[in-house]
Amino acid sequence: MTSWPSGSVPPYKPAAPCAHAIPPTHELYTYAKTFNMHMKFGQHYSCYLSSNVNITVFNTNNNSVSVPVGSRFHQFKTRKNHSVTVFGILFNFTGSGVNTTVQIVEDMILEPWFIDAIADKPDVFLRAHVCRL
C-alpha cells in the first residue's frame, strides 16, 4: 500500500480495491493460477488490468473463447478533475502457460478497443505493471 505524507490524501480513489494492475508474470506460467486470477479478480475489479493478456475459457454455450484476464483499461478522474486512462501492458513475455496468451504491443495498439480507449484523450495516460491502482 502506498504511504501518503501526513495530512495529504491520494490523488484519486479507485472504484474498487485492487491487488494488482495486471497479472504478475509468475502467475501466467500455469493455466490454473491464471484462471484463478481471472475469476477472483479480473471479473470483479475494473482496475485489475490486463490490456494484452488473454485466457481461453468456455462461454455459456460451452465454446472456447479467448477473453482478457482482467479489464483492458481503466479510466477515472482525480479529485482535481484530471482525467486518467491506465493500461496494464505486459512486454515481451513468452513463458505463459497453455491457453494463456500475451499479445504483442504492436498488435494490441491496432485493436478497436484500444483505439476507442485513447480517442477521449485524457489528461494523462499511464502504463501500469504490477502495481496497485
Automatic annotation (TrEMBL):
This is Uncharacterized protein. It comes from Mycena albidolilacea. InterPro entries: Metallo-depent_PP-like (IPR029052).
